[in-house]
Amino acid sequence: MEFFIHNLAPIMFAGLIIFLLLGFPVAFSLGACGLFFAFIGVELNVLPEALLQALPLRIFGIMQNDTLLAIPFFTLMGLILERSGMAEDLLETIGQLFGPVRGGLAFAVIFVGALLAATTGVVAASVISMGLISLPIMLRYGYDRRIASGVIAASGTLAQIIPPSLVLIILADQLGRSVGDMYKGAFLPGMMLTGFYALYVIILAIFKPHWVPAMPIEARTLREDSGKSGLPSLAILTALCTGASIYVGKNMPAIHTWWEGELVEKVALDETIVVAMCFGVALAFVAAMFNKITRLGLLSRMAERVTFVLIPPLLLIFLVLGTIFLGVATPTEGGAMGALGAFVMAMARGRLSFSLLKQAMYTTTKLSCFVVFILVGATVFGLTFQGVDGPLWVEHLLAGLPGGQLGFLIVVNIMIFFLAFFLDFFELSFIVVPLLAPVATKLGIDLVWFGVLLGINMQTSFMHPPFGFALFYLRSVAPDKEYVDKITKKLIKPVTTMQIYWGAVPFVAIQLIMVGLVIAFPGIVSSGLDKAEVYDLDKVRLEMEADMPAPIDQVDPTEGMQGGDAAAPAADDPLKAMQDSLATEPEKKP
């Protein structure tokens, strides 16, 4: 019995693992395990009975958490956009743009995956959309099935690290940090991961060109009447807009000074990037609209089509991320504006119907309830685990690892990687992260940086064979039987499950390389965060002393007197007046 009393925390954690392995739902496994060991702890006098009285307050605290409101908003936005036709237009246009080069369709999928990630934040919506639209086209033109399926699944998982990401919202809530800071810290790693995916396709195009062939010339339908591609016009427009953005970015302090009417010497980096990009996009849109209205033919069809197709998602990105980075809106408010923008886009395309709205609301409600139930179960488990000194056990287990911070980070990331084979990011965030945060804080690790690092690692949970959810989503839309292509009339072989699994392996390796880079170079994350103000306490003290009135015994009584009037004081001294009033005030009797 003594052994049971002194080791209740590890026994409780082992009991949770047994509950999960038995196949019980995660939310109910957490709640049941927490209550079961709470009653045992009370009976053994390990934890006080009064501790359980805090449980209702904690559950009500979940319902009052404004940050969690961003989850249904972003989910609804992603589901509406999935059915608005935006992904279809993007993939078709960007596919035509990159089609002439080897691996062009794969580049298009990666680029569109990053755009969808920055607008939807939902993996299922991105993977299913690109699987339905791009996979048949890639199979039609001879792409290797492993490469095609791996690129689609990996690009869809970018929604887990590129803001607005549901993972980052939950991690921010569990770590007690700002969602906006999480978004700023994850922006550069997300872009780098997108670049690594593209670099992998470039390597394949060089060494295995038959795996990623270019589109045949007859499939490139977006051309001029003369047969030209129209790419020079697009290149010139891109160069002009990029140059204008760079000019605006470099002169942001001067622009702020002119706008506000007072001198501004420095502007935050995130605000500079957002405003400069918005200016470049607006310039491209104005040029395309002017060309379309006047019909001067200054822009090619390719340039005009690319501009008009990219404007809606970029506008939505500004509505969501731009307002958050500029400090205009909180993440919850940004999600609400994004959901409204998705409704407007769906209405503009004529895709908004009652059945679509009903289906999107149903799925959003189901996912939101799923998150809340897991969070309630995790709260019950966490309260009991704290009562039996579970965090202290975890701290002793991890803080004493050899290597200090580096040893802790290596062990934690290996543990998260293997747990991701069996648990999804919701379960990892609610079960494991609260146990790791106190240890990370004690070791001096910045929790925003730590949260982004865990988010990149958890992204692999969607790609792990055989339980990766992105692979399941792709399997549900990939052809499992032979079929005749409508365009080429050729017999297309099916995509097997093993081909999907093998296609995911290189991208899982790329994600692990990204984890290593973030550990080796912390500035990848911290460079996107606002710099903390550093105050010189000695300088502050000197300034305070200079502003304080001189002591009474150091004041010259003749200073400031006029016309020899010895009774007239030079200036009002508030401190002396207060002392005089206290000295002359008659003593009050009780």
UniProtKB/TrEMBL annotation:
<keyword id="KW-0813">Transport</keyword>
<feature type="domain" description="TRAP C4-dicarboxylate transport system permease DctM subunit">
    <location>
        <begin position="274"/>
        <end position="524"/>
    </location>
</feature>
<keyword id="KW-0997">Cell inner membrane</keyword>
<dbReference type="GO" id="GO:0005886">
    <property type="term" value="C:plasma membrane"/>
</dbReference>
<feature type="region of interest" description="Disordered">
    <location>
        <begin position="548"/>
        <end position="590"/>
    </location>
</feature>
<comment type="function">
    <text>Part of the tripartite ATP-independent periplasmic (TRAP) transport system.</text>
</comment>
<keyword id="KW-0812">Transmembrane</keyword>
<keyword id="KW-0472">Membrane</keyword>
<feature type="transmembrane region" description="Helical">
    <location>
        <begin position="448"/>
        <end position="474"/>
    </location>
</feature>
<keyword id="KW-1003">Cell membrane</keyword>
<protein>
    <submittedName>
        <fullName>TRAP dicarboxylate transporter, DctM subunit</fullName>
    </submittedName>
</protein>
<feature type="transmembrane region" description="Helical">
    <location>
        <begin position="186"/>
        <end position="207"/>
    </location>
</feature>
<feature type="transmembrane region" description="Helical">
    <location>
        <begin position="335"/>
        <end position="357"/>
    </location>
</feature>
<feature type="transmembrane region" description="Helical">
    <location>
        <begin position="67"/>
        <end position="85"/>
    </location>
</feature>
<keyword id="KW-1133">Transmembrane helix</keyword>
<dbReference type="GO" id="GO:0022857">
    <property type="term" value="F:transmembrane transporter activity"/>
</dbReference>
<feature type="transmembrane region" description="Helical">
    <location>
        <begin position="369"/>
        <end position="388"/>
    </location>
</feature>
<feature type="transmembrane region" description="Helical">
    <location>
        <begin position="105"/>
        <end position="135"/>
    </location>
</feature>
<feature type="transmembrane region" description="Helical">
    <location>
        <begin position="147"/>
        <end position="171"/>
    </location>
</feature>
<dbReference type="InterPro" id="IPR010656">
    <property type="entry name" value="DctM"/>
</dbReference>
<feature type="domain" description="TRAP C4-dicarboxylate transport system permease DctM subunit">
    <location>
        <begin position="14"/>
        <end position="243"/>
    </location>
</feature>
<feature type="transmembrane region" description="Helical">
    <location>
        <begin position="306"/>
        <end position="329"/>
    </location>
</feature>
<dbReference type="InterPro" id="IPR004681">
    <property type="entry name" value="TRAP_DctM"/>
</dbReference>
<feature type="transmembrane region" description="Helical">
    <location>
        <begin position="230"/>
        <end position="249"/>
    </location>
</feature>
<feature type="transmembrane region" description="Helical">
    <location>
        <begin position="500"/>
        <end position="521"/>
    </location>
</feature>
<feature type="transmembrane region" description="Helical">
    <location>
        <begin position="273"/>
        <end position="294"/>
    </location>
</feature>
<feature type="transmembrane region" description="Helical">
    <location>
        <begin position="408"/>
        <end position="436"/>
    </location>
</feature>
<feature type="transmembrane region" description="Helical">
    <location>
        <begin position="7"/>
        <end position="28"/>
    </location>
</feature>
<dbReference type="Pfam" id="PF06808">
    <property type="entry name" value="DctM"/>
</dbReference>
